[in-house]
Amino acid sequence: MSGTAWEGRSGSAGAVRSQRIGADIQYTAAQRAYLAYGDHLRDCPVCAVDGEVCVTAGDLWEAYRAAEEPTVAP
Predict the structure, then answer these.
(1) How far is CA 1 from its chain centroid?
(2) Per-residue pLDDT tens digits of the chain, which is 74 residues long
């Protein structure tokens, strides 16, 4: 998955400033699920405006929790 990242760059008088750069970012399944949940909360009219949690948000949260659980080898 590609995305953006921040990198420190030297500025004038030795000051360091952040510059946004393109980067290939590899997210874990749990990170992808959490990002999907956060994006939904921000964009959903029920979750973002009403302050409630809709069914889709609940499903995305459960997907995140399932992806976060460690797998146990038999």
Answers:
(1) 12
(2) 456 665 555 555 656 666 666 666 678 889 899 999 999 988 898 888 877 889 999 999 999 999 988 765 55
Contact assessment for residue 28 and residue 35, using Cβ atoms and an 8 Å cutoff: no
Residue 57, C-beta contacts closer than 8 angstroms, at least 6 positions apart: 37, 40, 41, 44, 46, 47
What pLDDT, on a 0 to 100 scale, did the predictor assign at position 52? 81
What amino acid is encoded at 73 in this protein? A
Determine the Cα angle at 10 with ends 7 and 13, to 5°.
Answer: 150
Q: Which two tokens stand for residue 34?
A: 């959490």
Q: What is the rounded CA–CA span in Å between residue 33 and residue 53?
A: 16
Q: Distances from the Cα of 42 to the Cαs of 4, 6, 35, in angstroms?
A: 19, 22, 11
